[in-house]
Amino acid sequence: MSKSFNLIGLISIIFAMFVWGSSFIALKSAMADLGEFTVIFLRMLVASLCFIYFIKGFLKYKFTKSDIKYILLLAAFEPCLYFIFEAKALLYTSASQAGMITSLMPLITAMAAGYFLKEIISKQLIFGSLIAMIGVVWLSVQATTTASAPNPMLGNFLELCAMVCAAGYTIVARYLSEKFSALFITAIQAFIGAIFFLPFFIYEYATRDMTFSVEAVSWVVYLGVVVTLGGYGLYNFALTKIEASKAAMFVNLIPVFTLILAFLILGEQFTVQGLIASATIMSGVILSQIPVKKLKRRRKKT
Hints:
Blueprint: H1 7-30, H2 36-51, H3 55-58, H4 65-92, H5 95-101, H6 105-117, H7 123-142, H8 152-176, H9 182-207, H10 214-238, H11 244-249, H12 253-266, H13 272-289, H14 292-301
Helix pairs in contact: 1-5, 1-10, 1-12, 2-9, 2-10, 4-8, 4-9, 5-12, 6-8, 7-13, 9-10, 12-13
C-alpha cells in the first residue's frame, strides 16, 4: 500500500482527530472549576508520569545540535504556545466554535509543507480542502453565541493563533519523525510542557480560588492520558505513514466530532444544518485522500 493511502495511518489519524475533538469538551469542563493553566500543567504532568517507564529506551537516541533545536521548536509550537492560545480561546468562545476554527489548519499546513518540506500539493487535495472549507463556513454561520461564549470573535481569533502553532508543529514533527519514534516525540512534548507550565500553575494556585472537584480532576486525567498520550501518539505515528499536508486535512474532522460531543455532553446547540455541514466536511476529507488515479486504472483493467 502506498504512503499516500496507508490504512494503518488512516485509522490512526481518524482516532486521533476524535480524541482531539473531545479535548475541547474536556478543557471546557475542567476549566469550570480549575484555572486554565492549572488544567494544562496537570495535563502535562499526568502525561509525563505515563512516559517515565520509557525514559531508559529514549536514552538510546543520539542527539545532534540540530535535533535539539528542532525538538525545542516543536515544543515551543506545541504544547507551549498552542495551549496558551487554546486555553484562553475557550474562555471566550464555545467548544463547538473553537472546533470549527481548527479546519483552517490544513490550508496553513499545506502551504508550509509545500515551502519547507517540498511536498506536492495536488489539485485533488486543494479541491477536497475547498469542499471541507465550505462545510466549515456553513457550520460557522449557523453557530450561535451563548453564555459560555461571551466574546466568540476574540476566542475564535485566539484559536486561529493556536492553529498557526499547530501547523508549525506538524511540519517540525514530520521532520523529526524521520529519526525519532512517535512515542519519543509525544513524550518530549509532555516533559517540556510540564516544565514550561509549572510557573504558570504556581502563580495561578497562589492567586486564584479553585475547586479540585472529582469531575474536574477526572477531566484532567482524561486530557493527560487519553488526549495527550493517545491523541498525540496516534497523530505522530500517522505522520510516519502519511504526508504532513495530507495528515493536516484530517483536522477538518475535529469540528464534526466536537460538534457532536458538545451537543451530547455540554448541551450545545446541534441542528440539521450542522449535520449536513459536518457531512460536507467529511466528504472533503475523504475526497482529498482517495487515490483517484489508481481507482481509474483498476477500473480500466477490469
